[in-house]
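Example record

One chain of 246 residues, shown exactly as stored in the release files.
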Amino acid sequence: FRGAIRWMPWDVREEIIRLAADFAVLKPRVVHAWQDSGGISAVYAARLTGVPRIIISTRNVRPTHFAWYRPYMRFAYQDIVADSEIVICNNSEAGRSDYAQWLDIPLERFTVVHNGLDLSLIRRSPANAVEERRAQLGIPANAPIVGSIFRFHDEKRPFLWAEVASAVARRRPDIHFVVFGDGPLQRATEALANRLGLGDRFHAPGTIEDPSTGLSVFDIFLLTSQFEGTPNVILEASALGIPVIA
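Predicted structure tokens for this chain:
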């Protein structure tokens, strides 16, 4: 058991063993693993415990583009790809192409399954809820809002978002800017927005439980990510009829 994963980093081995113990007790018929680090660990644990059906979903472009990349991932993926019984998905054509090039494998080894939404659950918030949210943020009732929902991480390019906001603000002094979310770059982004002169027109109130509530406040949705798969938040904004710039 341990011999099959001996080459991996110690913390990855520990995660695989923990997951394998869970699978041995639960005896799942299917394991559907997501993302790179957690997905790889779940796939190895499922193989080691004889799970009949294994699926791994890669959700973006290859992990070398991100801060969490670790070299073992390429070797692990090559091993996973070699097992024809494992289904490998990506949620965009661009993501599939990037992984296939990285691993030097045919495109056909990946199945593209785009993100989907249950449109019956995507509804604009009532006017009184929107007014209440504006009041909480200190935004005048008639002020247009450019907004977004994302994690304050490098790949989302929050500094670029603030720079775009600053350029817009110079032309339209009535517009306010709102980003829901958190992350390690939140404070630095707020400081940059302040240096760029946005002052109390830039709002970063933290995470929001219901994306529809946040989106309903926006007049325009702006996303400056360098890499995305099929972003749910863009699909949700579009479903609500909010113009998207990305």
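Notes: The chain is about 40% helix and 15% strand.
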